[in-house]
Amino acid sequence: MTDADQKALNALAKGAGVTAIGMMISKALSYLYRVVIARGVGPDAYGQLSLGLMVIGLSTTAAYLSLGSGLQKFIPEFRSREDKASVKGLVMDALGMTVPLSVLIFGLVFFGADFVGNTIFENPDLVPLIRILSLSILIAPTANVFFDTTVGFNKIFYKTITQRILQNIAQLTVTVSLLLLGFEVVSAAWGWVSGAFLSLILGFYFMEKKIGPILFSNVNSKHHRKKILWFSAPLMLSGMIGTILGWADTGLLGYYMTDFEVGLYNTALPTAILILVPHKAIGSLAVTSFSELKERDEKSVERSLKTATYWIFSLVFPTFLIMLLFSEQVLNLLWGSQYSQASLALSILALGYLVDAMAGRIGSFLKSKGYTKYILYNNALALTLNLALNVVLIPIYGIIGAAIATACSTALTNLLMVLEGWKKESIISIPSKKLMKVIGVGLIPLMLVAGIDSVLFAETPFWFVFPAGILYYSLYVLAFLKVLGLGEEEKNVLRRIGEKSGFEEEVEIFINRFE
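The structure corresponding to this sequence follows.
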């Protein structure tokens, strides 16, 4: 491996570590928010909240116009030329487009809540939830402008600490407080709005006081409305498709089935998504790393891509197996016994996200090569398949049909990207032989844990998943290190982490132990 290859992998590991911390905290808090509501109000009310969040998610995406990518692209360019007038103008342009649109969409959602709740979903209890949640449409797009401006100044910490952590803490705190006071499911709606409001205040503070002033500077604005809108337009379309794809199953479940089924499904879905945390973390600097390598020989890119995929799959596969074997117990432990009915849906969804992990960072590679239109086409095809399968399967199979639709559309998107990487760039992103070894290493300790389970219990109790998980992960790590060992890439990355953290000796001892 060349020094350039190793540098890219070191950056990948470093970026994964930094992002993983913020991402794990964010996922834990947002997941806890849902668990608290689901346990506190039951599946029916939790299903109503999920439908309300779907309406708000689609509305907020439409109101923001995906202008964040334009801010993050053009602000650094203007800064490099010390063009403060254009920076201010760009921010003013973004606010000038998002604020009026946010007000318009808020009005449509607030006054149209009766139509959505009573006519579309035939659910009058949904109306007050939508009206409360709609307040965040006025807030979130503006907050996003503030934070994407700070990112344009290479200050991503402000966005991470606020929107990933503090916003979720405020959301959870307000929700729990109101629940204890007896406000039922509207507690979650007010908690959601409170978190968004905190994000707005802090976003303005960080932009004006830490990197600015921008809006209140004495510089005259130089506007670039067409430039930022032209750049953001295709991304807006792709973003809307992605948002619809993420909420289609919930929306169609609400249309065809009851709140109860929506509530059940929205315990399985976020639980299955948890297995992708390593995937998203390792992808944090993937585009940058692959962009740095793309001018060199394609073998360097392919090796880096395969290594990233190997790391992702090795981290994801054991969690997938636990969700597959103990899906009912996992849901019972985390969400409560009434939600264990979603166990089969959890297993199906986990299988779809395993395919996502197996494809690795091929999407990041395609973006680095400029194949964004193919990603848009893939998402459009996936959305078409998702909607068709949901319409056909949900009336017959309920949440199982929704899970099949989501798993199939997720798999289709990733398989298309793998095929495009091979056809367009002759890149094979999947190290098939290595992944087969990981599967073998993962299955052996699982058989042992399953054997212990069958000997001890006629019917597995929900609490057994905790000791079983600890035992399984311990055996998996030991088997992985003994059978597969650490390659030179992994050793060099670990040594780099050891140098940065001050644990060089300990890391070296660990590496030598598994030589």
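The mean pLDDT is 83.
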